[in-house]
Design a protein that fits this description.
By secondary structure, the chain is α+β, with helices and mostly antiparallel strands. The chain has 2 domains: 171 residues, Ribosomal Protein S5, domain 2; 130 residues, GHMP kinase, C-terminal domain (Alpha-Beta Plaits), CATH 3.30.70. Helix content is 33%, strand content 23%. It contains 10 helices and 10 strands. The strands form 2 sheets. Strands 1, 2, 3, 4, 5 and 6 form a 6-stranded mixed sheet that branches. A 4-stranded antiparallel sheet has the order 8-9-7-10. The longest helix is centred in the middle third of the chain and has 20 residues. The two termini are 34 Å apart. It binds adenosine-5'-diphosphate (ADP) and ligand LJ64HWYM. The site of the ligand N[C@@H](CCOP(=O)(O)O)C(=O)O has 17 residues, from helix 4 and helix 5.
Amino acid sequence: MNRTKGVRIKVPASTANLGPGFDTLGMALSLYSWVEMKESESTCIRLYGDNMKGLPKDKNNLMYRVAQLIFDEVGVSIPELEISMYSEVPLTRGLGSSASAIVGGMVAANALIGSPLSNEKLFDMATSLEGHPDNVGASLFGGIITAVWDGVHADHIKLEPHADLEVLVIIPDFQLSTSEARQVLPSHISREDAVYNISRSSLLVAALSSGRFDLIGKAMSDRLHQPYRASLVPGMVSILEEAPNRGALGVALSGAGPTLLAIVDRQNLHKKDLESYLLDTMKSYGILATARWLNPSTEGATNLAIVESDLFVDLIKGEVEV
Ligand SMILES: Nc1ncnc2c1ncn2[C@@H]1O[C@H](COP(=O)(O)OP(=O)(O)O)[C@@H](O)[C@H]1O
Ligand SMILES: N[C@@H](CCOP(=O)(O)O)C(=O)O
């Protein structure tokens, strides 16, 4: 087996669901994590930047655990690893931090042993761990992905985001774990609501593929998860209703929340007004939030260069180890 000295991977964050595509649609975003991994005499995990605060730095760390899943799958033994990670992705805000860590750890571990596993196999393993393919698929493949998971295998098709699509995320200053935001969901839904979502999710994929910006707003409406999660995200209901009148092409809860996402036409001249409206509305509900203008990331983790390196420090530009 061809083992390289060390590997470095860049992984995009993600926004899952895009409204109606619960557990199905995802889009990679230009907010990144970097993971460096190499064999070591004893395990050492270094985490850089405020977003990494509180995460375990021993063999319980998610990235170490997913790396061992890869080695077990291939039948190699590398029990001791040096792993470094720097991430721009805030934790538990609905921007796919866990998906980034899973994908980053898996792609890095696979690369470390000469990439014996295909991207499709990594996708199956990552989906099995995360429980749904939307956010891991976006981080792994980039672009907009539509995915299906049958409990064993995940299939996907990647759409190239239109060059005029820009994304505004409003990140509240509180955390909401995906597991908590899934607990409020009902286990059964009516046929009417199922039809409502199937039709809009299909329309959204078609609108995104064909550049029909005029239909994105209508297509991003949802009855499967957002109404049930509304009580967890103050201000969300007002924003979902009003943001399309303030210049958003469409608006949704990002992943399991609490971040809200607006899809915007890059040419829109009133982007600043939209941002102010969203921040002011959150504030009126007592929520402080940060706005970030992002782009869809067309490249996923697997498409970016894997380099030999043992100088992670180059990359982190003075970020402090936490
Ligand atoms: N770099 C990382 N290393 C280890 N664990 C991580 C990392 N990033 C995220 N996690 C785990 O994922 C959890 C957040 O996942 P989740 O609740 O799904 O929210 P998110 O929307 O950010 O993915 C964190 O509390 C932590 O347990
Ligand atoms: N489909 C999932 C997506 C969760 O994404 P995350 O980025 O919030 O972890 C859900 O809506 O629960």
